[in-house]
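FAQ: What does a multi-protein file look like?

Like this. Sequence, then tokens, then the next protein.
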Amino acid sequence: MASSHEHTVKAFDQDIGQLRALISQMGGLAEEAIHDAMKALQRGDIRLAETVRGKDKAIDAIELEVERLAVRVIALRAPMADDLREVVAALKIAAVVERIGDYAKNIAKRVPMIHAEGEERIEAVSLLPAMAQLASDMVHDVLDAFSARDYEAAAAVCQRDSALDDFYDSIFRTLVTFMIENPQTISQVAHLLFVAKNIERIGDHATNVAEMVYFAATGRYLTDREANEQGDS
């Protein structure tokens, strides 16, 4: 006959599994939002942009569900050490993923202004989807790392953030140069610069999640690992 401790452990594992599933669902919606927002931007698809903005509520709703479940787990299961770190990480990660969804919504919100009637198309728009794909891949991979408790994969995501920053710097210079040479495009370019910044922030948030995953799995901060590696070199 199973002991009460075994029942408690099984119930906790089920709760953790549900938290991971909810965050995975949030991540999928956030990735879809990024993809659709960029598609709307490329095509000037105002209707798709509005759809992205409307679907953001689904991400918000799942975040609330994660919050309720995490609080219940802490109250009823009283997890300790690495178990507690995982529950707290899930709570924090859900908030970050919700913010990533907001960035995708913000991109979609600017589509009508970038594609205002009579405005010429700015070629730099074609550079942004590649940057967005890199950021979206970081989000996807870091949430996979959380689900698998793979701290090495999480650390690898952090290493890709510098490439995204380089991408942003390149696009920033391209857009500013274009704006200087074509003053009539100042309004459009300003919105595109905000889009590029939103994408860069998505990458920053993916890096934040990676640091949470690393800490939840190891009990150490990622910066501590980097310091140790530099000391060994």
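And here is the next protein:
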Amino acid sequence: MIKRTLKQLADMAGGTLVHGDDNLLIQGVSKDTRTLQEGNLYVPLIGESFDGHQFVEDAVSKGAAASLWQSDHENRPSGVPLILVDDTLVALQQLAKAYRSQLSVRIIGITGSNGKTTTKDMTASVLATTYKVHKTLGNYNNHIGLPLTLLQLEEDTEVAVLEMGMSGRGEIRFLSELAEPEIVLITNIGEAHLLQLGSREEIARAKTEILAGLQQDGTLVYNGDEPLIEKVLPELKAQGGMNATRYHRVRFGANQSNDLYPLNTRMDAVGTHFSVQRFDGVSFYIPLLGFHNVINALAAVAVGIHFAIPAATIAQGLKACVMTSMRIELLKAPSGLTILNDAYNASPTSMKAALSLLEEMQDYNRKIVVLGDMLELGEQEEEFHKEIGRMLNPQKVDRVYVFGKLAQHIAEQAANKYPAGRVHSFDDKNRLAQAVASYVGPDDVVLVKGSRGMKLEQVVSLLQQLK
């Protein structure tokens, strides 16, 4: 984490030290008094329903060595070392950018509609075989989280793998320009944020903004199966939306026209085996199920190649990867029931991938799906849900359970193909979980998937208790 004197922090944040010892050593930055550590600089951020300035004295009582203070706020606490700034959020971002410029760390920026976190985890695991690596923790991938992540870096961190999220245009541009990555990676272009942006093409434009801060002679790693990426790239350059006039491209994907594509994909009970056309005699394995995760793994392979890591070592890193929770976790109930927990988020793209995974899985008696609403899809939300319903195949998925108003459209379409009694709709999660529990047996597998707002992990929790 950042370790600087109070005066150095004031200069880096563009502020004025109004009280405190210039040489007081500050270690780390926090915006939350609940997780603050002794010696931290407290950053009182301001939101729609809160103002962190109210907690400055509490922060100091819990060990904060100093605090930022926004100049338009009165009643400064007495006896507290303060750095006066025009805007505490801008100061946090400026402090992070200044700290990043003082480090020799090499940065990878990752974005995409789906698979960002999975790809981040695999990329960090590959790099950790050879380098000291830091990766974005949790959902620290926005205009607040990314600066805090940069400030968490140790001075000797060699590589940082940073996830970059967004809800609208301009946000990824800002994050990329703040981080100045050596490599940028785009996993795919899906339907998330259609409500805000209106079209997949506009989403592609927003995602390719990650090139804005790319270093000269940097590398763009992207999903070559997605034509929209290459379609919008010339626009970014024509509009002067990137620093690098020269950069390299590496394409990964399922198609053999890509620079990296998979061969011989095979799943076992808990993971997926595959090979890569570029490497003869090297077998790869990821502790994840599904062909879509093999595609994400190829992105991590591309980064490993860029960092001159041997193929066998890349394979070791992928095999050892520890995944962030609630992204297709394979769970076992005491009864023997297998649960695929994918309740973290949902879009049409990720929903289709999860259903394909379920269909690919062998050695199970029956396959059941529990599907919730896919949120923030804009005007096409009804049709997207109907499309999922039409995808469901009674020859491959035995029963369908849905929860939510939009998910009703999934059920309606599925009911057109399924025999009576095999498609069920609920508006109560407890009743849904009880219905599934009364049906499933020890040799069955249940996929649970929906948008985060549907909180379907509650269903997962109940199913995990089956004995």
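Q: Is there any per-entry metadata?
A: Some entries carry free-text notes. For the entry above: The first strand starts at residue 3 and ends at 5.
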